[in-house]
Amino acid sequence: MEISPDIFEDTQTAFANLSNGDLQKAKALFTLVGNNSLVNLGSTLANLALSLHLPVSPLFKFSVYNHFCGGETFSECKKTIQKLETSHVGVLLNYGVELKETEEDFDKTITKNLEAIEFAGKNKSVKALCIKITGFARFFLFEKIQLGEKLSIEERKELAAVKKRFEKLCDAALKNEVSLYVDAEESWIQNPLDELVEEAMAKYNGECCTVFNTFQLYRCDRLEYLLQQIEKAKAGNYFLGAKLVRGAYMEKERERATEMNYTSPIHKNKKTVDKDFDEAIKICLSTIAHVYFCVASHSESSNLFAMKQMDKLKIARNSDRVFFSQLYGMGDNMTFNQAKLGFNATKYLPYGPVRDVIPYLMRRAQENTSVAGQTGRELLLIKKEIERRKNC
Ligand SMILES: Cc1cc2nc3c(=O)[nH]c(=O)nc-3n(C[C@H](O)[C@H](O)[C@H](O)COP(=O)(O)OP(=O)(O)OC[C@H]3O[C@@H](n4cnc5c(N)ncnc54)[C@H](O)[C@@H]3O)c2cc1C
């Protein structure tokens, strides 16, 4: 089937999985998320409820949680995964619990992720597990390493434990034939994170592509880093795994750069970011013999660009080298239409106990208000589909 320029306007395909009731709920949710003051108030109240150990309302689970998350348990997730599978949409699974600080928490995160890898191994439409290294390591340890400061004996032991945990995950991923997508984080800890992932790619990506790093194209230096990584993979005879994103910490990065008086590593404007993002797609496609990659974006223009380029270069739409991904609960107009056209479409699906996933959800909601046009676009498409159904 041809890719028409208005392919992402097909709301019938996009929302086929949603009942009329689900659509009304989504409409209410995106109206709320589109309001900055309500989001900020909601975040404050949620954080207050958490710190006071108040019970989290079932209303929260029924509304926000169910819209953006797969479920609290694997059996709940399985229902969501099977529903997506009927539309040929795969899943990138993510244990949505963020930023813990004790060794006990870190070990718990590893146990949870090992369970998820096993689960993914048995569910072929789970294409990868997404992990954050700071989910099982102390943020400030990496900050210290990046600053070039000498680690104490205790800290060296701590780093060795982090490496061991990461290795455990990589071993399990390889054994279960599941890919491991490692998130990119703040630029002031990213160098040592990159180093860990690079080592893992050289070790685990010889036969197939198990470990993926994330490239944040809002950073001025990442296109060059991508090119360098491809050369390194070629020379080392392993595959480069690349998740391409624009980057989630723009405001934080800029604030820190201003406060600490250094040049921000982030591009000055969105246009330059968009240019680099599409250039990264082009680079990955032109070196596809050495690269497996994922276009992780809600940009319709970048998604369309990648799809058209694949057709132009005669790369099979279902090639296991190229995946597309949008967050569960957002960008359905892209995901489901990509799947319908035969591309490898996936949803980034967080799961975990409602209470523990709240910080992820609050970040999502706040991010939404800062992502220009995104919420408005979601709402517009939902309203369009509600109208279409009324007229059927
Ligand atoms: C599956 C998936 C995985 C992800 N994993 C990660 C990850 O590991 N690490 C991470 O950091 N993020 C990650 N993200 C989030 C991602 O980086 C973006 O924040 C988010 O997807 C919005 O970008 P976009 O391409 O979807 O949409 P768009 O709306 O096209 O782009 C919005 C983004 O453009 C950039 N931008 C906007 N305005 C400006 C400006 N004035 N100047 C410079 N840049 C600007 C920002 O990065 C902003 O988030 C992930 C997203 C998805 C869908």
Structure description:
The chain is α/β, with parallel strands linked by helices and 392 residues long. It has a domain at 88-356: Alpha-Beta Barrel (TIM Barrel). Helix content is 58%, strand content 12%. The protein contains 16 helices and eight strands. The chain has helices at residues 11-14, 20-33, 36-51, 58-68, 74-85, 103-122, 139-146, 153-176, 187-204, 222-236, 250-260, 270-286, 300-312, 332-340, 354-370, 374-390, and strands at 90-95, 126-131, 179-182, 211-216, 240-245, 291-296, 322-327, 345-351. It has an eight-stranded parallel beta barrel, surrounded by eight helices. Helix 13 (300-312) links the parallel strand 6 (291-296) and strand 7. The mean pLDDT is 91. The structure holds flavin-adenine dinucleotide. Flavin-adenine dinucleotide is lined by residues 183-184, 214, 216, 218, 245-250, 266-267, 269-270, 273, 296-299, 325-327, 348, 371, 374.
Notable traits:
single chain; 392 residues; alpha/beta; TIM Barrel; 8-stranded parallel barrel; 8 strands; globular; binds flavin-adenine dinucleotide
List the helices and strands and how they pair.
Blueprint: H1 11-14, H2 20-33, H3 36-51, H4 58-68, H5 74-85, E1 90-95, H6 103-122, E2 126-131, H7 139-146, H8 153-176, E3 179-182, H9 187-204, E4 211-216, H10 222-236, E5 240-245, H11 250-260, H12 270-286, E6 291-296, H13 300-312, E7 322-327, H14 332-340, E8 345-351, H15 354-370, H16 374-390
Parallel strand pairs: 1-2, 1-8, 2-3, 3-4, 4-5, 5-6, 6-7, 7-8
Helix pairs in contact: 2-16, 3-15, 4-15, 6-8, 7-9, 12-13
The protein binds flavin-adenine dinucleotide.
